[in-house]
Design goal:
Rossmann fold, seven-stranded mixed sheet, globular
Length: 229
């Protein structure tokens, strides 16, 4: 799973989202995060982007609520690092699972240096997926407003997968879930269907007008900074 998120294959059901997301993260870090900076991945899971960040000479630190995390997030949502230590905070598909946005954003601001960068992705449109909870979906303007209200200013927003492609991805996910339950051939059939529907979704995204895609994305990735004190 770790490799597939940072280097997805066309037969993965989330290829159309994860491939451009990984490319955008690499570009944004290369352009806006100084080599050698500490990056805190706030809600890192199995740390799928650790290898990429270390290739870019980033001092990557994964933080999560699990006991086996390198940096254990405590019950108050705090990471055991000093204030302002991070040149970057990474948050990939975490925000929709956060119940207390105030606490989460407060910790982002605490960790970031004054010129630090937040790279955050979350869903605009997608299926309910509790890990362990699932609370929100955003519009482009709603995401920027919710972050701004909590002292985080969005500088740029990238939209990944417009509405035509997203509907195909949702159907693909359902088909693959069913097919993988079939004995012997289920995995192969699921991969074949995923590859074909990924190609269809890619074509659908290409014919979707930019404004429609930008305002109705499956995933938004923002580059942001904390507001001045």
């Amino acid at each position: 799973m770790r490799a597939s998120r940072s280097s997805p294959r066309i037969w993965d059901t989330d290829w159309l989202v994860l491939k451009p997301l990984a490319q955008l993260l690499r570009t944004e870090v290369g352009s806006h995060v100084r080599p050698g900076s500490i990056m805190v991945d706030l809600g890192c899971g199995d740390m799928p982007y650790a290898g990429m960040m270390r290739e870019l000479d980033i001092d990557y630190r994964g933080a999560d609520i699990d006991d086996d995390a390198v940096l254990k997030i405590d019950r108050d949502g705090r990471v055991p690092l000093a204030d302002g230590v991070a040149g970057a905070v990474l948050s990939v598909q975490v925000l929709e699972h956060v119940r207390d946005l105030d606490s989460y954003c407060s910790e982002i601001r605490r960790l970031l240096s004054d010129d630090g960068v937040l790279l955050l992705s979350t869903h605009g449109t997608w299926l309910y997926h509790p890990h362990p909870e699932d609370h929100r979906r955003w519009t482009r303007t709603g995401l920027a407003a919710d972050l701004s209200d909590r002292g985080i200013i969005v500088e740029e927003t990238h939209a990944i997968a417009g509405p035509l492609a997203t509907t195909t991805l949702i159907r693909m996910t359902a088909f693959a879930f069913f097919l993988r339950r079939l004995p012997i051939v289920g995995g192969v059939l699921a991969g074949l269907v995923a590859a074909l529907m990924n190609l269809r979704a890619k074509m659908e995204d290409r014919i979707t007008p930019k404004q429609v895609r930008d305002d109705n994305a499956c995933v938004f990735l923002v580059r942001a900074r904390k507001a001045p004190a």
